[in-house]
Amino acid sequence: SESNAAPVEKRTTVCSHCSVGCSTIASVQNGVWVRQEPDFDSPINLGGYCAKGAALRSHATSEKRIKYPMKLEGGQWRRLSWEQAIDEIGDRMLEIREESGPDSVWFSGSCKANNEASYLQVKLCAFWGSNNRDHSARICHSTTVAGVANTWGYGAMTNSYNDMHNCKSMFFIGSNAAEAHPVAMQHVLRGKENGAKIIVVDPRFTRTAAHANQYIRLRPGTDIPLIWGLLWHIFENGWEDKEFIQQRVFAMDEVRQEVANWTPDKVEDVTGATESELYEAAKTLAENRPGTIVWCMGGTQHHVGNANTRAYSILQLALGNMGKSGGGANIFRGHDNVQGATDIGPLCNTLPAYMGFSDNAWKHWCRVWDVEFEDMRSRFDTYTVDGVHRMNVAGIPVSRVVDGILEDPENLGQRDRIRGIFFQGLSANAVARGPELQNALSKLDLIVVSDPFPTHMVALSERTDGVYLLPTATQFEQAGTVTASNRSLQVREKILDPLYESKTDTEILYLLARKFGFAEDMFKHIEIEDGDKPVWEDILREINKGAWTIGYSGQSPERLKLQLKNKHTFDTTTLKAIGGPCDGETYGLPWPCWGTAEQKHPGTHILWNPSLPVSQGGLPFRARFGTEHEGVNLLAENSWPAESEIQDGHPPVTYGLLRSLGWHEDLTPFEMATIAWVGGEADKPSESVTEDDIARFRTMESDGLDSVAWHTDISGGIQRICLKHEVAPFGNA
Ligand code: SF4
């Protein structure tokens, strides 16, 4: 009878099928996931979700899961115990390392892994002694990260889904949100109900286009000429935001010169969009500000994807749409944790928090990990190219892993070719190059697939030996945090214990580290429960400690759990407020969330918002850009203005990064103290700062927008030291 039924427990998880971050309530009875429903209290999905989200339960409980460790031998799959699997895989990996060096094993991470697993993947590779690791963001939004970071700083979405209620116009290019991010579309439609005008640019008439006030068809790959065509009308009619450009934008005159070449007839010739279409669109955008721009992989997955994202950004700068509610760049990511895995996970060219591979960056993370820098250095191969140590060299990206297997290793600066791959949550569709990939897989000595499902990678390999399958828990069988497209961290509670013989990502990484003999060092400050289960809260605390340079410090496990709990106490009035003006909490805690959790920084819902005090994340900015299209290259990628120009440029301020790298000593006391202020540590400026300086900082905070001159002082300092250390200021991926 019902009264005798086991109690039903409700747990909250985050949908794993796209980057919107919808909450789902799972009902669990007797350890069985019996029911799911969208979370009515979530300010993001407000009780709704799409067909993909509705299928979460079947994702976890699918019969097609890998149920136990297996090995392919003589064309037959043979069942193994976990002990056998880890022993055999570990021994083979160690043999390869002995014979060919640590770079001969390539590790994949995944945009589907949570923040804690992504971070441990980086750490495991560091202790293994290689930078040969990457994840699937390489082929989706890495062009956005590079393009946007080089324009105004952080390579991320600047506003949020909820904030789209406040837009007066929305310009979609390379995004079909109605199908790819359906719940985001409900916020778009709320914005439309509020009066926003929608323009959709796409080669296809999509379901998103069906909601547009204006649809413009363009020839595929002609995004930049189309943006130049829009800017041509904007400049021609004086519709640009002159004050904003004068105060905040570097080098718009160069864009103006370039745009002058893109007359309407030339643009129509290249793009197919007519003069009248682009005039109408430009007028709509000019008359309906603030407006946002939305893009997704339709804009990024091009050979000029980086330049596309810069062109989109330039349009927003010309219209003065940045740093305000209803404006910004709403860049829709793909997977559920593509943002977090990029921020602190295994990209082949960065350490966590977008730090490169300089000695100073390594020293920072060695301090966090409590290991000696020299010890870490000794783990890497002694093979060098041009005398550069392997720990300072970027690894092989996803897009070139096939070359790493097939090409002469010397061409890639490698001692030997890639002989073994450990795929944790990445499959063939993220690598592409099908026939070449198939050939490459056949040449490997070892393939390990750690995944809930047997992936395309296994099927494609057509091998008879040397493949292992490790049953891995789905997102719903492991707790941790994920970062949605709007930079917001949310807790994902564990719904079920791992099904079948599955283990979580972090357990598997721990078992490997133990096999390799460095678990004690790698997990020095991370508690291990039940013999092999790293505690996710400890991993997040370590992330808080090291990634504070990009504002991952204020989101402690305790604070995020409290927020998850409190969300369910919202009444409808509060919900309405959250769904309305985006001036308070939306959901999760978006980075930058400066300081410690106790300092209760609210997270930064709108990047570069000059109406907020700097201590609340309202960093004034001054953007720069480079553009390229078919050989046109105004400012080469990653190049920065000459030293004589630096007082005019204003890259974003990253006080923490400079200080943690020890480069702050290159700054003048005033520059250092100003950065300290922006980083939220005004009360702890360096000793050489005078009372006078402190008074200037106080003025700067209250001045808001007018304080840009002071911030220009800072940017000069940052530019100078970055030039000295031969790096772009930060954020390049
Ligand atoms: Fe899941 Fe995205 Fe659909 Fe939300 S919109 S339910 S996150 S797939």
From TrEMBL:
Keywords from the UniProt entry: 4Fe-4S, Iron, Iron-sulfur, Metal-binding, Molybdenum, Oxidoreductase, Signal
Coiled-coil residue spans: none
GO biological process: anaerobic respiration
Entry cofactors: [4Fe-4S] cluster; Mo-bis(molybdopterin guanine dinucleotide)
Gene Ontology CC, one term: cell envelope
Main location: other
An example molecular function term from Gene Ontology annotations: molybdenum ion binding
Protein name per UniProt: Formate dehydrogenase subunit alpha
Species this protein is from: Wenzhouxiangella limi
Full-protein interval shown: 57 to 789 of 985
